[in-house]
Amino acid sequence: MSAAAAEPKSATPEGATPEGATPEAATPEAATPETATPEATARESAAGGADLLLGTRPLTIADVLALAHGRRRASLSDDPAQRRKLARSRAVVDEIQRRREPIYGVTTGVGASAGTAIPESLRDEMPHNLLRFHGCGTGRILDETEAAAVLTVRLATLARGYSGVRPLLLERLCELLNARVLPRIPEEGSVGASGDLTPLSYLAALVVGEREATVRGRVLRADEALAAAGLEPLALERKESLSLMNGTSVMTALACLCFERAERLARLAAAVTAMIVEATHGNPAHFDARLFALKPHPGQTRCAAWIRADLAADGVPPAPARLQDRYSLRCAPHVIGVLLDALVQARPTLEIEINGVDDNPIIDPDRREVLHGGNFYGGHVAFVMDGLKTAVANVADLLDRQLVLLCVPDTSDGLPANLVAADNPAHHGFKAMQITASALTAEALKGTMPASVFSRSTESHNQDKVSMGTIAARDCRRILDLTETVAVIGLLAACQALDLRGTEPVARRGRALRDAVRKHASMVTEDRRQDLDIERVLGLYRDGALPIGALDAPSEE
Question: Catalytic site residue 104?
Answer without folding.
Answer: yes
